[in-house]
Amino acid sequence: MSVSMVSVLSVHYHRCTLLLLLPLTMAHKTVNVVQFEPNKGAIGKAYKKDAKLAMEYLAICDECYITEQEKLLDENGEFTIETEGKTFKLTKDMVSVKRFQKTLHVEEIVPNVIEPSFGIGRIMYSIFEHTFHVREGDEQRTFFSFPATVAPYKCSVLPLSQNQEFMPFVRELSEALTKNGVSHKVDDSSGSIGRRYARTDEIGVAFGITIDFDTVNKTPHTATLRDRDSMRQIRAEVSELPGIIRDLANGITTWTEVESKYPIFEGQETGKKETIEE
């Protein structure tokens, strides 16, 4: 049966043999009916105790499906149905197609808009449940450990403070991340860097780039890259970071591999005072 020609519920009740229909009261209406007419004796003789399954299936088939099988019956003398994990080959002496008219007082329709058990809502709830964590030793700090491949934001860009010297690097990184197809969030609010880390962790941002005074004062310009789950940081050149995050987000590399290639960040070596003196 062509799925494009029937609703999701039609496919479902062909599998479970339950009529999932919505009755609507209507004025008298004469309609053409097409249905299978099974030869119970012939089907019973051929399939014994399983004959009931075949006849239940034939009773719920829609006109489109019946017409398709009627064509096979005329051309090949038989057609095959599958139900409850069993296959039935039906021949002309076992089934025919009956056409007639009847008057309807209630119309039964198959709804096309439903909320199936495999809806996106259940998937999202499962993801939230399995990725929600509390920081050890600090019950107030929670985070979602979304894998980078599915995290809505792959990366945050965080200037250490609102110092205007950081802004050119923020713009450079944001533009480069966009060009690399990396969804990201810039947080240049006035909160402490620790509080902003916590905020991005709460919404499951996988990685965070921090622009500090070493970024401004030293060449080549570098910035830190923080892993959300371990809270460990490495330091790399600003020009390299967008590509690193792109590869992490696409599953091409892992955080362990990144840590093996770049120096672990322990703390910035220069500060605002040195910037002013220069």
Automatic annotation (TrEMBL):
Xref: InterPro entries: aa-tRNA-synth_II/BPL/LPL (IPR045864), Anticodon-bd (IPR004154), Anticodon-bd_dom_sf (IPR036621), Gly-tRNA_synthase/POLG2 (IPR027031)
Entry's Gene Ontology molecular function annotations: ATP binding; glycine-tRNA ligase activity
GO cellular component, one term: mitochondrion
SUPFAM superfamilies xref list: Class II aaRS ABD-related, Class II aaRS and biotin synthetases
One Pfam family linked to the record: HGTP_anticodon
Keyword Zinc attached: no
Protein location: Cytoplasm
Keyword Signal on entry: yes
Lineage top rank: taxon: Eukaryota
A GO BP annotation: mitochondrial glycyl-tRNA aminoacylation
Extent of the signal sequence: 1-27
Coiled coil regions in record: none
Domain Anticodon-binding: from-to ranges: 154-247
Keywords: Aminoacyl-tRNA synthetase, ATP-binding, Cytoplasm, Ligase, Nucleotide-binding, Protein biosynthesis, Signal
Database matches in PANTHER family: GLYCINE--TRNA LIGASE, GLYCYL-TRNA SYNTHETASE/DNA POLYMERASE SUBUNIT GAMMA-2
Name of the protein described by the UniProt record: Anticodon-binding domain-containing protein
Protein's organism: Albula glossodonta (roundjaw bonefish)
Organism classification: Eukaryota, Metazoa, Chordata, Craniata, Vertebrata
